[in-house]
């Protein structure tokens, strides 16, 4: 039978584009209102806020996240190579801005260990290039003077230009200058990606690649914290191979370990891990997670203060954390040029984690998010805070899970968390002066449990999909052993190469008929299939395009055990030799055989089929090379009196064949070459024979 295609209505793209342009350029009060409300989603949902139903859940989750956020913010400042005050600023502004612009009700945006690490690596590199000593620890009483002015008593001064004016800047001033410039550029990239609707870029970051990247970065984070854990002073390694170099330095200086820090770290890790395990085991019975980090920080600070651990045992402490807000400052344009390349992977990773977590929450709680608006929200969570001495942010998985488990209903909980951070900024920050850095390192290391547990999932992952496991291993190894940026690049490239290889060398098979049915399946995979007499059914499980053309031909020739080009060439060769012998009048052929034996040899092998059916059900598209390949095999097999029939082609493949002239000028041969099922093609081949 022949199915008649519907007549497609021609679309006047010019008119459509003009109409869209006219609509987008028009300016009406209603349209302006919609634009503003789309840009600030809070204006849509906040007037509909069900106070009695939502408020207690939002307050509870906001308080819990705020309590967790304070110790984590102070701890992650070690990763970023900045003072704790900047982490608190980052947490405060990110929550407020995402409340105004975000479309997810549950995601927690703020400092994230992976993003802090990437910021810290750029800051350390630029500090070294500027001539600063990364291990130049200031005396506790003086070290934070530079937060309020542009000088640092015990460090090199660096001159750079702001607004055409040369400014002398100390180490801490220059470090936060680098971080804010990096954050501003990353935010600009994200906003530009939102303007040009480039949110699809995150689709190329597979789950396996992101997991491998996060795990590899977690190993780097763990390695960077070991020196604080045991209280040794070693140079902060930079560049490729940082993980290996750091471990070499650790073992070379292990004899210098501070016994006070080692004991404190051991106690804190035992307490934190035990509390986490108990919390995971009894999470269904607990109304909210245990604030273990806060308890550990409070107790450790009191012990350190009253025990004089810094003075008696030279244990490294956080130092003075000023209260209030530093006056805002425009990020330095000269520094932006230095970090423009580094900001790109930071922008992509930040957006990818935020969108993936937002989509996860939206799916779980049955609402929708707008990925493009998420791009704007994350972008402005970076751009605006960069003027207030903050660094890059992203959604964090652990805090998001805590937020959902403690009754969060809307982003009002984010405002509550910001208020908790604000209280610390205004009143409580100086109380953390005596907090040991090894305690902060313990909090960071224990927070990596989830990422490090991915190693236990490798056998299960391998059982599900070997290629995805290989992507995970390659990305994780590159991120840990080379650098996070190179690891991201390697992961993306390797993931795409895996897709290309899968389409270049896809699965191919000859099909047999399922007995007493009209269905056909792979002869090597299923038992009790019967072959169709004088018909070969070939399946190619990938698009047919320029990159896999040769593999298609080789597979077809191998499975059918017949290369039409070689067969035709051999026949012509023997025919030519036979004609030469006949002209000489010799009844013996060139190979010494008689005429009758030579005629038999002109058919070099017994061809047991007269038709080839190509199952196109798995061929999603054809390019020009693919169409020419099908035309080529049809022509080659025709010389051997073998028909080539196509079955199960989708409409786009049929259109490509029509445009490529496969069916002739008027499509006259279409009903004899194209069939809508394999069984129809088999019946036609039998009638043809």
From TrEMBL:
It comes from the Eukaryota. It catalyses: nitrate(in) + chloride(out) = nitrate(out) + chloride(in); oxalate(out) + 2 chloride(in) = oxalate(in) + 2 chloride(out); oxalate(in) + sulfate(out) = oxalate(out) + sulfate(in); sulfate(out) + 2 chloride(in) = sulfate(in) + 2 chloride(out). Pfam families: STAS (PF01740), Sulfate_transp (PF00916). Keywords: Cell membrane, Glycoprotein, Membrane, Phosphoprotein, Transmembrane, Transmembrane helix, Transport. It is a multi-pass membrane protein. InterPro entries: S04_transporter_CS, SLC26A/SulP_dom, SLC26A/SulP_fam, STAS_dom, STAS_dom_sf. NCBIfam families: sulP. Belongs to the SLC26A/SulP transporter (TC 2.A.53) family. This is Sulfate transporter. The gene is Slc26a1.
